[in-house]
Structure formats: structure tokens, C-alpha cells
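Can't paste images in this forum, so I'm doing it all in text. The chain is below; anyone willing to post the predicted C-alpha cells underneath?
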Amino acid sequence: MPHSISQASLPALEIGLTALSAILDKAQAYAAAKKIDPTVLLNTRLAPDMFSLLMQVQAATDLAKNGAARLAGVEPSRYEDAEKTIDELKARIAKTVAYLKSVDRAAIDASADRQLTFPLGPKNKGEMKSDDYLNHFLLPNVYFHLAVAYAILRHCGVELGKVDYLGSIPMKISPR
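Text version of the structure:
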């Protein structure tokens, strides 16, 4: 049976965002243990011209939500970007995961050959077939923001490993 667009997109987005929420739990625990103001972590960036941790989370959730909506052929809802705490970011992630679970999978699967037009920054737009959008734009962009959020927290000293980034992927582990 061929792998559908909804199978290739929604679980990957949900797993990535759920892993992001879990690493934010670790960041919160780290800040408490080290007596660090959590806003220090939220405002940290890897380079001066990169987004802060807070903005990486906002970007990852926006991309996931907007991408799933575009694939389903519906108008994406807007988030206010008003989060200032780890708990507020976790609520945003939970809201996004709930949205991903509600998206019409049949509408996404019917979109494979549909041409999408989407914003690329404030002045440009992109156009791609839906399956190309998923594989060459949506997933790489979400993974980028997830990886940078992970890297920021590692840089700050939060003890994270690869399994934290991967999250609860459906995998059977057997001895050799």
C-alpha cells in the first residue's frame, strides 16, 4: 500500500512537536535546578541573526499548523505569538498537536497533485505541488526549527540526548 501524504506528514509533525514539548520540560527543570530565570533560556539564540528559542518554538508550531492546513486545502488559523513562558509555549504546542489530530486526512491525501501557493516571508510567495511542498519545504523547515531549539538548550547546558530530539518514534528495539 502506498504511503499517503497524511501518513507522511501528520505523525512526523506530531512526534516532533511532542518531543519539543518534552525538551521544554527538561529546560524548565534545568532552570529551576540551576536557579536560572527561564526567560534567559527563552531569549537565547545560537547567533545574533537567528531566532531565539521562543521564536524557534513559535516557528515550528506555525509551520506545522499552516502546512497541515494548506495540505488539507483550508485556511490556516493565526496564533498571536504572545507567549512569554515555557508553560505558554507548551500550551501552544499542545494546541498545535490537537489541531494536527483534527485535520481531515482524506483532504490531505487528495492534495498530492494540487498546486499550492504559500507565503515566503513578507514579500514573496512560493508555489509547489503538495507532495513536493511536504517533502522539500514543510518537513525540512519544521525539523530545522526543532533541531535549533534542541541545539539552543544543549548550548545552555540542558542535558539532552538524541533520543530527546527523536521523541517517541514508533520503533521496535531488539537485541542483536
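The first helix runs from residue 5 to 34. The first strand starts at residue 115 and ends at 120.
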